[in-house]
Amino acid sequence: MSPEKKRAMIKRDHPELSIRQQYKLVRLSRSAFYYTPVGIDADTLAMMKEIDRVLTKYPFFGSRQIAAYLRREGVIVGRHRVRRLMAKMGLEAIYKRPRTSQPHPQHPVYPYLLRKMAIDRPNQVWCADITFVPVRNGFLYLVAIMDWATRKVLSWRLSNTMHADFCVEALNEAIAKYGPPEIMNTDQGSQFTGSAWITTLTEAGVRISMDGRGRYLDNIFIERLWRSLKQEAIYLEEINDGFQARRIVKDWMTFYNTERPHSALDRRTPNEAYWTGLGEQEAA
User: Fold this and answer.
1) pTM
2) Given CA atoms 33, 39, 45, 48 in this order, what sign does their dihedral have?
3) Residues 31-74: pLDDT tens digits?
4) Domain coordinates of the chain in residue numbers?
5) Residues sharing a CB contact under 8 Å with residue 183, sequence separation 6 or more, in sequence order
6) Would you state the CATH architecture of domain 125-283?
């Protein structure tokens, strides 16, 4: 049976079986369920793509500047519509706290631990963020877990919802592959303040750090990752469905980790910086 037919069998409101149990019964991975993009009308999706393209190129633009920029290109749109669609996509100008994941009023917020800290070794600090990925008939969300010092992407997941599950799956994969970090730093979004994410970190002995309002520089490395991914892969071709999106993201993440040198890493790739750093720690 094809993955598409298996996904069609999954029912979120099944009276007796949880989604996790349904996945197991049809032998479908949890993340595969999220490859179906969020449906949306063509005109709105086209406008969302335009907004995302402009913000990818000029991440410091707010809704007023984006609307003005698009009008200069012949795309007539008001500032308020731009602002509403940016909120739907989870986007905001980089000089403000990212809104990709909104804070939950009942979730605890943890203090920021990285002030004046020298971050210079693998697994000292990880960070995570979520971005918008357009697909022909809708859009998906993408989360990545990154090692701060080496810029290595440790894991990632696509989802058609902003539920915390796909973030926790990515976190569990990263910990299983590389062991827990000393500190995990994120924004104050609900995916990163919810019980599943917090419990996973605390049980692994990880200290939790959260960006304060306006601390955009604490998210700058993943913002750069998203900009490179979109400019070098996402917007170079029309993505038809979630499975194509997954393939494109997977291929680019492999290229980014293993072949793309960084000036901040002495022209090494993230993989080279990560494994060399671990070797130096063991030698010491």
Assistant:
1) 0.80
2) negative
3) 555 567 887 888 999 999 999 999 888 888 889 999 999 999 99
4) 38-89, 125-283
5) 113, 114, 124, 125, 126, 206, 207, 208, 209
6) 2-Layer Sandwich (3.30)
